[in-house]
Design a protein that fits this description.
single chain; 342 residues; alpha/beta; Rossmann fold; 2 domains; five-stranded mixed beta sheet; 30% helix; elongated
Length: 342
């Protein structure tokens, strides 16, 4: 029986999808978003995004269902930092339903190539076996008839033969590019998703301690925040986001998108009107100038603890400071949340 003969007829009202992820291909491209911050991918958010992306328009009422997200990568046992990172990913996401991680020991694969500038040959090393393992697993799952869609999350062109084979077998494969979309990979897949625009929504910055985003125009609020802290202000990382020497353009752009921080023009009659930073100016420099000149205002100071929003200034008379659910901001910044300050 051929693979095509094993495919179950697509069931009406169902959008079951199995995802196959090239771990390091996703991570390497995600890390390009920031210069001075480490980036973590939220793997559960990635799978949820891709299930949602199979909807055929706004009025599609079919049920999206993850039938499994299989993540494949390698790890070098001789690299303690990398092994610690992989262990942390497994500890954080390994117990989440529907996510399956497979990390194989990295086996160097030596090859040689020619330098395009000097024409000299030199040796290169890359991981071996992970792409083969992913391909075998994807073909195996294709025969199990438990899906309407398969998804490959990688921009590695080595997967083109796999994609071509699955297409010829009648499988509906969604290609999710992790970097620049590839024309040849698009040509052999059912549909395509460019992950570049979605990285801020499925990633988070990774840092120790507390970061406070601020600007010169909110000095009084910053003083109030610092006086309420139960820890020494010197342990806080305070960043003036109007100053490019304190936070570079790439890092600022990522944080503003990642936290979905909105702003309003100071002269807006409707105080509830909100704008994204990208709609206020054509560039980060333009946004910084508007903020430094006091032409826009937002929820500054804005406090991040280990990558998550802890609290921010609301601007409301009754509740000047907002603490996020699940955070202990009222314990770490007790004076801000006393009834006398409400």
């Amino acid at each position: 029986m051929s693979l095509k003969d094993t495919i179950r007829v697509v069931q009406s009202g169902r959008r079951r999808i199995k995802l196959f992820v090239d771990f390091w291909n996703v991570m390497i491209n995600a890390r390009k978003l920031c210069k001075n911050f480490d980036i973590d991918v939220r793997w559960d958010a990635l799978s949820e995004l891709l299930v949602s992306s199979t909807r055929l328009g706004h009025f599609d009422d079919t049920i999206g269902e993850l039938a499994g997200c299989y993540v494949f990568g390698s790890v070098s046992n001789s690299n303690p930092k990398e092994k610690e990172f992989v262990d942390r990913v497994l500890d954080q996401y390994g117990a989440i339903s529907g996510l399956f991680f497979n990390f194989a020991p990295r086996v160097p694969k030596q090859s040689s190539t020619t330098c395009p500038q000097c024409s000299n040959k030199f040796k290169t090393f890359s991981e071996s076996g992970v792409d083969v393992l992913l391909s075998v697993e994807m073909i195996k799952h294709a025969t199990m008839r438990e899906h309407e869609y398969l998804g490959l999350i990688s921009s590695d062109r080595d997967f083109i033969p796999l994609l071509s084979y699955l297409k010829d077998q009648g499988q509906r494969v969604i290609h999710v590019s992790t970097g620049r979309p590839d024309r040849d990979m698009r040509s052999v897949t059912w549909s395509q998703i460019d992950l570049s625009d979605f990285y801020p929504s499925i990633c988070r910055i990774r840092h120790d301690g507390c970061i406070v985003l601020t600007s010169p125009c909110v000095k009084d609020r910053l003083d109030e925040l610092l006086s309420a802290s139960s820890v020494d202000s010197r342990s806080l990382r305070i960043l003036d986001i109007t100053n490019s020497s304190e936070i570079c353009d790439k890092d600022l752009d990522f944080i503003l998108k990642n936290k979905n921080i909105y702003w309003k023009m100071v002269d807006d009659e409707d105080g509830r009107t909100r704008y994204s930073h990208s709609s206020l100016s054509d560039s980060i420099d333009g946004f910084r100038k508007l903020l430094a000149d006091g032409d826009i205002e937002g929820n500054l100071p804005y406090v991040l603890r280990e990558g998550e929003t802890e609290l921010y200034y609301s601007g409301e008379s009754s509740f000047r400071w907002i603490q996020m659910a699940g955070q202990d901001a009222d314990r770490r910044w007790p004076k801000l949340f006393r009834p006398s300050l409400d």
